[in-house]
Amino acid sequence: MGAWLSASLPNRCLLCHLSIPAEHTGLCDTCLASTLYQGPVCLGCGRGLLQESGFCGSCQRLDTLAVVAPASYHHGLGSVIAAIKHRQQLAPLAVLCQLLWQRAHRLSLLGLIQLPQVLVPVPLHPKRQRSRGFNQAWLIAAELARYSGLPLDDSLVSRCLDTRPQEGLDGKARRRNLANAFSLNRPCPWQRIALVDDVVTTGATAREIAALFRGSGVAVQVWCLARAEAPGLLSEVLSD
User: Fold this and answer.
1) Number of H helices, E strands in the chain
2) Parallel, antiparallel, or unpaired for β 219-227 and 192-200?
3) Beta pairing class for 157-159 and 219-227
4) Is-above-0.85 flag for pTM?
5) What is each CA distance from 192 to 31, 63, 66, 140, 227, in whole angstroms?
6) Do residues 11 and 25 make contact, with C-beta atoms less than 8 angstroms apart?
7) Mind giving me the DSSP string for 9-32?
8) Chain segment 130-153, per-residue pLDDT in tens
């Protein structure tokens, strides 16, 4: 009955609410195109760049983690990604993961990143996962593995502290909240990994996990569905 009802209901875009073809799910082509980056962005901070150069000058000097995302969280995808995480609205997940993989592949062809050897989803604490029923980072990583052919390793990193949610915390509070929250379960057998999450805001979670790999020389980058850069930063186009 549930499957029949779902099939009989109109397939509508989650953003503009117009009907979309049956083979599409979640977002229409127009809304999807409008949410994507329209030009080069710094992989470190998300600032707009005049040309594809990977990192702006400031992020080059700071040796910032590369964040690979197809879109800004603030340009329409915020409500969609929040619905994936909090309401299990998974309809747009496949197309967003496909766009993320296309973005990563393009950056690798440009020589701006080196593709990872494995996808590592950011873990939830077991208590949080039982409460939510799923880990959205794992679902994203599984979909990316299907598109890319890269393996998924969800046994490498654990969340050992059940910290408070990061929403509403500033950067300093996020860093305090995540101190010692993660642990490595075994030595990393990979040289290059991509941490996978739904959204990157301050990058505190990624940096906390990346620090676990630093001593063994593992190169870490971050893949996410959208980047929540500082307000107005994307429009500050630099020529670095």
Assistant:
1) 9, 6
2) parallel
3) unpaired
4) yes
5) 34, 16, 12, 19, 21
6) yes
7) S--B-TTT--B--TT--SS-HHHH
8) 888 889 999 999 999 999 999 999
How many CB atoms lie under 10 A from the CB of residue 14? 19
Q: Is the confidence at residue 55, as pLDDT, over 80?
A: yes
One-letter amino acid for residue 130 of the chain: R
Per the structure block, which two tokens stand in for 136? 């959205």
Residue type, 152: L
**What's the N-to-C CA distance of the chain in angstroms?**
57
193: enclosing H helix or E strand = strand 192-200
What are the contacts of 82-89 at 24+ separation with CB within 8 A? 83/14, 84/136, 84/198, 84/225, 85/136, 85/198, 88/133, 88/134, 89/14, 89/26
Q: What is the pLDDT of residues 74-122, one digit of tens each?
A: 988 999 999 998 888 898 999 999 999 999 999 999 999 999 999 999 9
